Amino acid sequence: MTTPVSGPSLAAPALVDAHIHPDKTTWGTPWQSRKPAQTLAELIQNDRDAEFDTSTEERAHALLSNAVANGTLAMRAHVDVASHIGVDNVVAVRAAADRLAPFLTVQIVAFPQFGLLTNSGTLEMMRESLNVGADLVGGIDPAGVDGDVEGHLDAVFGLAGEAGRDVDIHLHDGGDVGLMQIREIARRTVGLGMQGRVTIGHAFAACDTSLPRLRETLDRVAEAGVWLTTCALGPDPVPDLDLFEQHGVRLALGSDGVRDSWSPFGTGSMVDRAHLLGYRTGALTDADLERCYRLASTAGGELLGVPDLARWAGPGFDTRLEFEANSIAQLVVDRPAPRRVIRRGVNYTG
Ligand SMILES: [Zn+2]
């Protein structure tokens, strides 16, 4: 059965979610009310307290399935690894991802949400996770969560070097302390010859144009080939997209948490997320809106190193989405689901 065509058809690049947390989602389960939280520590505690009736694999699979139906063909999934939960979440998300291969490419980051140095045994679990489905080594706020920038980065880059993996670090820390950590990550990236293989997620400090050392820091990031990812989250700062472009900083867009203990919002649709980025950054022109779509699609494909998602060869390309829309700019505003999702010539039918 084919969907009747009623309006204009637009072929567009497939979408890529550069930063998502499938192990935490409640997708596919009854509505869950959330507890208040003012600080990162309180949000993390809520996460620790979260209880689910269904397995991590089933919840992750429900979210990943919805993402594919909405045109996401690759994602970088940050999955909790800690001494008290072991590597179970990594195994579960990898199993969910395997059920959607080859339509969906999933890279898993071993994410020490609950602290790396401050939660003893976590580094060993991260090392183990690389044998059971994790691809990259993660980190979180070396100063703000672990209180030891050198020690945290020694552990993250040490494990990455030992295992030959790339790095993707969450950095919520703002202000000069945040910028200092961004420069230190860039410095280590160059020193270790890891240009193009290191990502910093959120990087709120890099969104603060009032900081005197911001521009210098963006230059260090660009020189080191460090990627930044943003999720255009409601209460948090977003990058100045023009400034990032002026400094040659490479950026991709992600969902972050989807309907988890951190936020009731999110759908897993990167069209929705491109819309939110456009809204948060005051997009006005078609070029502004098209940039948001590019950050949600080919930029993410380049970050993940997935060839058929990193470039767009035009409407006849065998990996594409087909939307009922007149233009990319319009679809970022209207947020339709794609009529068809096609990867390497095969139509996704769910
Ligand atoms: Zn995150």
| % residues in beta strands | 15-25%
Ligands bound, unique: zinc ion
Low-confidence stretches: none
- Overall geometry comes to globular
The number of helical elements comes to: 13
Q: What CATH first level would be assigned? A: Alpha Beta
What is the multimeric organization of the chains shown? single chain
Gyration radius (Cα, Å) is: 19 Å
User: What is the ordering of alpha helices and beta strands?
Assistant: EEHHEHEHEHEHEHEHEHHHHEHEE
Strand line-up of the largest beta sheet: 2-3-4-5-6-7-8-9
Helical proportion, percent range: 25-40%
CATH superfamily membership, which one? Answer: Metal-dependent hydrolases
Q: Count the domains.
A: 1
User: Mind describing the biggest β-sheet?
Assistant: 8 strands, parallel
Number of strands: 12
Give the overall average pLDDT.
95
Q: Specify the CATH architecture.
A: Alpha-Beta Barrel
Give the end-to-end Cα distance, rounded to a whole number of Å.
13 Å
